Amino acid sequence: MSQTLDSSRRTLPLVAPSVVVLFLWMIVPLAMTIYFSLLRYNLLDPGSRGFAGIDNFVFLLTDPAFVTSIWNTVVLVGSVLILTVVGGTLMAVLFDQEFPGRGVARVLAIAPFFVMPTVAALVWKNLMMHPVNGLFAWLLSSIGLEPIDWFTHYPMLSVILIVAWQWIPFAFLILLTAIQSLDPEQKEAARLDGASGLELFRFIILPHLKRAISVVVMIETIFLLSVFAEIRITTSGGPGTDTTNLTYLVFQFGLQQFDIGSASAGGIVAVVLANVVAFFLVRSVARELKPGA
Amino acid sequence: MRANNTLRTTVLGWAVALLMFFPIGWMALTAFKTELQAVSTPPVLFFKPTLENFAAVFERGDYLKFTLNSVLVSFGSTFLALALAVPAAYRMVFHPTPRTGSTLLWMLSTKMMPPVGVLVPIYLLFRDAGLLDTVTGLVIVYALMNLPIVVWMLYTYFKDVPREILEAGRVDGASAWQEVQILLLPLAWPGIASTGLLNVILAWNEAFWSLNLTTSKAAPLTAFIAAFSSPEGLFWAKLSAASLLAIAPILVVGWFSQKQLVRGLTFGAVK
Amino acid sequence: MKTDVLRSSLAAVVLAMAGTQAYAATTVTIATVNNNDMIIMQRLSKQFEAANPDIKLDWVVLEENVLRQRVTTDIATKSGQFDVLTIGTYEAPIWAKQGWLAEITGLPADYDLDDVLKPVRDGLSYQGKLYALPFYAESSMLFYRKDLVEKAGMTMPEQPTYDDVAKLAEKMTDKAAGVYGICLRGKPGWGENMAFLSTLINTYGGQWFDEKWTPTIDSPEWKKAVGFYIELLKKYGPPGAASNGFNENLALFASGKCGMWIDATSAAGKLYSKAESQVADKTGFARAPVAVTPKGSHWLWSWALGIPATSKAQPEARKFIAWATSKPYIERVGKEVGWASAPPGTRASTYANPNYVAAAPFADFVLKSINEANPNDATLKKVPYTGVQYVGIPEFQSIGTQVGQAIAGALAGTTSLDDALKVGQAAATRAMRQAGYLK
């Protein structure tokens, strides 16, 4: 016991810098944000700055776009998680088998992960999904169908597809590593017992992937909660508020309307919501991850 | 039966790979077309490649300056994050306290703050510290932004390092720092490398802070691409050329290091 | 060993960072939009640098929305990152009022300020003082395809009405051939769809606010105008109209997909250039259409160069903006790039230049539109604000964008027109109450 205490004191300087800078990084802007959220503060009109009490929060929470944005955030995060985990798992199973040129094929398949979100959104918007000049429009019209106007009629679906395209490789990479760590003898034994491919997947591979899937869900959730560039470039949160997520709503307050008071209030609400999500996520996923738990 | 299976897997595997890669490939192809070819229907597949789009892009901005900034910022922030995270993760794994678990989770939860909500506070702080439009400023922001993920990845990776070796070293009277330097770093090198790689990728692609905290001197490639996101008239080919230039370096790095990346991306998940 | 590598790479990074911060000449950082005219300016500015070796120009070229964000954050926090800002007639007076812009004084004698068109100068002034120099200026007008009008057996009046537009659009539309009778802005934003819609609403007799600053977005005039707009685009517009802004429509018209397009006069230069437009010899123009009243049926806008009060290089910045908006600069563009690309709308001398008039058949027409646009009298009923396609108060960006989003939703068909206007009215009322205009 005393030895543990000693070693923990001895090594405290090792962890302290990280904790201290992260604490500052979190607490200083957070404190300033809380302060701003209580002010009437529009960047464009600094003269009218004054104490606003909870007005900004009332203003935000009574905005009809607020509830929509929460719902959109949930839909976006949830759908992308499902698509990437399912897609990533299927691809991992596929690439777990030997086939000619597997290395090169894998390199091509993970490429989307290296593409910056801005570029991904621009390429999909202009080259793929554009209703007049896009490739999809041409494909559909060449088989005699009416081109689909993606961002008008299926705005959320379009954003989900783009984001999922970027994150599938990430899920795929982690899940592939996990599958490859599976003991080949175990698979062979199951096969000898007469298990079909599907049964093999259901009873051997999937349980083995549980932990890796938790990791994917956790990391992706952190990033997906703040999806922004894809929405700004393709739909600007619209039509109406159909693709406005919470991050985008805060962006509109802060950088389109320059209403720092309301944007700060939005930031605080987002932090609170994120922590609620984090609480459940971290509790359930982290249990999976903690060794010996 | 077996050969049949392999054929099916091959076809399927390549189909999936090409499908995933297709938008990038198409973009690369478009970058070498003329503007009129880029929008023509049906799409042109065979054409005489032109470099005029690249010339137009180079003329509009100092591509090398943007690229250099991207390299400095992503590698600089990675070094800084690793320098902070390696000791922290070492302690959390080898000298855990009752609070270690919650510290780790708390670090992750700091990642959930939406950047837009804190832009103005950060902007004001940076203005007063003279960090606006400096590479140093971006290095700090990215290092802190990715620190939680880095700590967590290293934590799970260090878990796999056999304790006995470190304990043997400890008996010889090595200090904590020597322990990290001499024993842990060589053992955990692959994990540290892949953690660093992921960090480089995330920093390279980050577009919010880089656009808002830089003007010209420190602007990385994400700012470069912002000048092309909706220009006038026909612009598909120029946009493709600029996009290709912006992602090419990281794509190459990613491809060459993917084996390394895969090894470390486990987040301790394979156990 | 490995830590050595780590250490030396860190040292390299630190060195490189220090290296990027050393400059000899005075640096002038210019924030500008990625419009064609600005890109030409960037290219020609090498000549300015050659003539002024003590000044180094640093360019920050961004897309319009990003630029506005960036520049506003910077100037409102007095961070002084930029020395020259590209701003419009909307920002200039508002920012001047806040004391954020340096007054433009001490121009060289040969600058000839009186040559700059008066409506444009007035738009960039606050309380009689000038705060930015216009780089180019524009009004709005109707572009159409002469061949398609002929094919439809109709003619385009010099002053069309919106009823004429609807009839022509019906005749011109040939979806199978990929030709859509009418292209209009649909992308939400106060400077995008609401710029066009404000002129449409003005000419239908509506306005943004009544004399007591109460929003009038749920008025019958708005309903009629916006209803007409949605129906027109739904029937005869291109797919994806709700996400088309100025640039998208320019691309559509230039590639021959639109029959008519009502937008900025500054598009004319590009539509008539053979290199950039497939319909250069088939494009005709007419005045912006009218409905109930001619008042406010065409807008007035100018992209101008201003200097923030926080700039530490004001004399150098002033030298540059005077150069970029001067008569010799316009001459230079004419000679080196082509007269059709010369920055329009700023100077009387441009329109007196035979070279320009020969290259730009639309020249007189644009000049007339700009001179006739009156931001102080753009609505049928009296209003407390100035501006044709915008309202000159800081809160308008927010209100305009929210209303624009709601209308884009109605255009896309996700909400009804009535709901969209109701949402817009509520948003505007909320914002005006928060800003203290309404009790």
UniProtKB/TrEMBL annotation, chain A:
Domain ABC transmembrane type-1: 70-281
Transport keyword on record: yes
One Pfam family it belongs to: BPD_transp_1
GO cellular component: plasma membrane
Transmembrane spans: 12-38, 70-95, 107-124, 156-179, 212-229, 260-282
GO annotation, biological process: transmembrane transport
Membrane topology listed for this record: Multi-pass membrane protein
Compartments, as annotated in UniProt: Cell membrane
Classification via SUPFAM superfamilies: MetI-like
Keywords: Cell membrane, Membrane, Transmembrane, Transmembrane helix, Transport
Stored InterPro entries: MetI-like, MetI-like_sf
Family: Belongs to the binding-protein-dependent transport system permease family.
Protein name from the UniProt record: Sorbitol ABC transporter membrane protein /mannitol ABC transporter membrane protein
Automatic annotation (TrEMBL), chain B:
Cross-referenced InterPro entries: BP-dep_ABC_trans_perm, MetI-like, MetI-like_sf
Ranges for domain ABC transmembrane type-1: 67-257
Keywords of the record: Cell membrane, Membrane, Transmembrane, Transmembrane helix, Transport
Protein location: Cell membrane
Signal peptide as annotated in the record: none
Membrane topology annotation: Multi-pass membrane protein
Matching PROSITE patterns: ABC_TM1
GO biological process: transmembrane transport
Membrane-spanning parts: 12-32, 71-93, 105-126, 138-158, 179-204, 235-256
GO CC, one annotated term: plasma membrane
Alphabetized Pfam families for the sequence: BPD_transp_1 (PF00528)
Record-stated family: Belongs to the binding-protein-dependent transport system permease family. MalFG subfamily.
Protein name: Sorbitol ABC transporter membrane protein /mannitol ABC transporter membrane protein
Organism listed in the record: Plasticicumulans lactativorans
TrEMBL record, chain C:
Subcellular localization(s) per the UniProt record: Periplasm
Cellular component aspect of the GO annotation: periplasmic space
InterPro entries found in the cross-reference section: Bact_solute-bd_prot1 (IPR050490), SBP (IPR006059)
Signal peptide: 1-24
Pfam families per UniProt: SBP_bac_1
Keywords: Signal
Tagged with keyword Disulfide bond: no
Keyword Ligase: no
Recorded family membership: Belongs to the bacterial solute-binding protein 1 family.
Protein name: Sorbitol-binding protein /mannitol-binding protein
